[in-house]
């Protein structure tokens, strides 16, 4: 018999499998999302996202204490305001819900790394990520409001700004605004590659951010395109982004890999609401082993090249990893 490779030699025991494992997932890889609402005494589960809750500021500690105890180093804050208007003024208000939340979190947990989602869709009455005039989303006019939002979040104490709006030139505008306001040290995690994906539905339920007309395909990317992702990311790198985000994650691991191969910045991915809810629904039906599926998926993100994973599974995954 001709000699052949015996690959199974390196799979013969758990010890050897652990010793040669190429990629590892850990709690410090995770960014945990937090939804903050106005009011008091509120902890309400998002109907389409089992285990994900809206918190008022007075109950936010219930979420944060668990995040910290599990060793998750970072949260990203999404605000759901009680009032909306055409220009999303609550996004950049000094006492907007996100600004209040950031100040509260940094006061209670100064070592927790707080990322601010910088967009307008949750705050506008039309649900789009920028200024609208006669049904058109205006790019350059929107940049001014997005920059105001980023500066106000930095003033509140955010450690990182994460703009997710996909307006052209948003990184350059926000970088200039932060620098002029004295926040040169604040990094930008750019949602450099954000697709017009069908996987966002449950988030819009959570953030009350569904567009009131049309869709977001004039500014978010066509899911069919890959080379375009490299052009988008290259623009953000040139404009001063410190990290790059790919959103969504599961259907776009090839894009994560392409960015990792092309650019020397850290790459993150957003394991979005639809991906989370599909797994939750299948697990509740008993069709899948949730723990095994989630940890396999998160490992896939790391294998593709993501250093950081923004995921609604953060707390559960950190707990499973701790349990071994």
From TrEMBL:
Which positions does UniProt annotate for 5-aminolevulinate 2 binding?
273, 312
Q: What is this protein called?
A: Delta-aminolevulinic acid dehydratase
Q: What class of enzyme is it?
A: lyase
| Alphabetized InterPro entries for the sequence | ALAD, ALAD_AS, Aldolase_TIM
The GO terms this record gives for MF are: porphobilinogen synthase activity; zinc ion binding
What does the record note on quaternary structure?
Homooctamer.
Q: In which pathway does it act?
A: Porphyrin-containing compound metabolism; protoporphyrin-IX biosynthesis; coproporphyrinogen-III from 5-aminolevulinate: step 1/4
Q: What is the reaction catalyzed?
A: 2 5-aminolevulinate = porphobilinogen + 2 H2O + H(+)
What cofactor does this protein call for?
Zn(2+)
Annotated residues for binding of 5-aminolevulinate 1: 204, 216
- Phylogenetic lineage: Bacteria, Bacillati, Bacillota, Bacilli, Bacillales
Give the gene name.
Answer: hemB
**NCBIfam families in the cross-refs:** PRK09283.1
Alphabetized UniProt keyword annotations? Heme biosynthesis, Lyase, Magnesium, Metal-binding, Porphyrin biosynthesis, Zinc
* GO cellular component terms listed in the entry, alphabetical order: cytosol
């Amino acid at each position: 018999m001709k000699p052949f490779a015996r690959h199974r030699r390196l799979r013969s025991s758990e010890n050897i499998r652990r010793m040669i494992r190429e990629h590892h997932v850990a709690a410090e890889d995770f960014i945990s999302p937090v939804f903050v609402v106005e009011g008091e005494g509120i902890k309400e589960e998002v109907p389409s996202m089992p285990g994900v809750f809206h918190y008022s500021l007075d109950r936010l500690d219930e979420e944060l204490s668990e995040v910290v105890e599990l060793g998750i180093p970072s949260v990203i804050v999404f605000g759901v305001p009680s009032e909306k208007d055409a220009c999303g003024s609550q996004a950049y208000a000094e006492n907007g819900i996100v600004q209040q939340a950031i100040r509260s979190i940094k006061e209670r947990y100064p070592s927790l790394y707080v990322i601010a989602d910088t967009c307008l869709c949750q705050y506008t009455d039309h649900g789009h990520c920028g200024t609208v005039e006669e049904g058109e989303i205006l790019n350059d006019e929107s940049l001014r409001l997005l920059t105001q939002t980023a500066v106000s979040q930095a003033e509140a104490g955010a450690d990182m700004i994460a703009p997710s709006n996909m307006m052209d030139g948003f990184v350059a505008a926000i970088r200039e605004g932060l620098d002029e306001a004295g926040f040169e040290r604040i990094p930008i995690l750019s949602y450099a590659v954000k697709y017009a994906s069908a996987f966002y539905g449950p988030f819009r339920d959570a953030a009350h951010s569904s567009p009131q007309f049309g869709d977001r395909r004039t500014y978010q990317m066509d899911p069919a395109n890959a080379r375009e992702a490299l052009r988008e990311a290259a623009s953000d790198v040139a404009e001063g982004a410190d990290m790059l985000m790919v959103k969504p994650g599961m259907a776009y691991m090839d894009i994560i890999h392409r960015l990792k191969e092309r650019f020397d910045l850290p790459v993150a991915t957003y394991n979005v609401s639809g991906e989370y809810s599909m797994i939750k629904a299948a697990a509740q039906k008993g069709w899948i082993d949730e723990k095994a599926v989630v940890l396999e998926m998160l490992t896939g993100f790391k294998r593709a090249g993501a250093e950081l994973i923004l995921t609604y599974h953060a707390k559960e995954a950190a707990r499973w990893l701790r349990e071994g």
